[in-house]
UniProtKB/TrEMBL annotation:
InterPro entries recorded: Pyridox_Oxase_FMN-dep (IPR024029), Pyridox_Oxase_N (IPR011576), Split_barrel_FMN-bd (IPR012349)
Biological source species: Inhella inkyongensis
Gene3D superfamilies tied to this protein: Electron Transport, Fmn-binding Protein, Chain A
NCBIfam families recorded: PPOX_FMN_DR2398
Pfam families, alphabetized: PNPOx_N
Protein name (database record): Pyridoxamine 5'-phosphate oxidase N-terminal domain-containing protein
Ranges where the Pyridoxamine 5'-phosphate oxidase N-terminal domain occurs: 44-166
Signal peptide (residue range): none
Taxonomic lineage of the native organism: Bacteria, Pseudomonadati, Pseudomonadota, Betaproteobacteria, Burkholderiales
Length: 219
């Protein structure tokens, strides 16, 4: 039997986990536990406001499905805005593919998680809370691009937990090391993937138009 098929050594209880992962003890516990806040602390706020990219996690309470979705923006287009003294985040839902996986999940279950990344910075910021989806005209106008390119909705996130993740994962992976970057052409193209999964799909034509199409439809 392959090791990954053998369940004999699965850790299925908190006691089993703690036998391998002992409780943090002071002074190390300060860096592990005391960093947690129930709002966006003034020292966490610059990290969130500097982040051009985050991963959004949602859960579909109806089907027990989980989903992760990327969100990105920079410059005049804010990825997220911190309001209410750090108690609330506003996240515009920019133009996408209309699958609305995350939005459908939030309709069923408002719990949400976010992981903010900043290029060149090893630490990541983790946020947990509950979100509602607002199409209030003034709220959408707040995130307008080019005067008339508005998000269709804005996530209003009530923050319940914020803390930083240390830089170990980024350091181990070489995430921000230019020497570790992989040329895109070394991997299957988007068109090649779609052609393999869709009958009669012209992958080459899709790839040829992709960069310009994305540039034209960012907002």
């Amino acid at each position: 039997m392959s090791p990954w098929q053998d369940t004999q050594h699965d850790l299925c209880s908190l006691e089993a986990l703690r036998a391998i992962y002992p409780e943090p003890r002071r002074p190390q516990a300060a860096a592990t536990l005391d960093k947690e806040c129930d709002h966006v602390h003034p020292l966490y706020r610059p990290f969130i406001e500097a982040a051009p990219w985050c991963v959004l996690a949602t859960h579909n309470g109806l089907t027990d499905g989980l989903d992760l979705s990327p969100r990105g923006d920079r410059g005049a287009a804010k990825l997220v805005e911190v309001v209410d003294g750090g108690r609330t985040l506003l996240l515009p839902d920019r133009r996408g593919n209309n699958r609305i996986d995350s939005l459908r999940n939030l309709v069923a279950d408002p719990r949400i998680g976010l992981l903010f990344l900043i290029p060149g910075v090893g630490e990541a910021i983790r946020v947990q809370g509950r979100a509602r989806i607002s199409a209030h005209p003034d709220l959408c106008q707040r995130f307008a691009m080019g005067g008339d390119k508005l998000p269709r909705a804005v996530l209003v996130i009530a923050v319940s937990k914020v803390f930083f993740q240390c830089a170990r994962a980024a350091t181990r992976s070489g995430l921000w090391d230019a020497a570790t970057q992989i040329p895109r052409q070394q991997l299957p193209s988007t068109g090649a993937v779609l052609a393999a999964l869709s009958q009669g799909f012209d992958g080459a034509d899709y790839d040829a138009a992709l960069a310009e199409r994305q540039r034209q439809t960012l907002y």
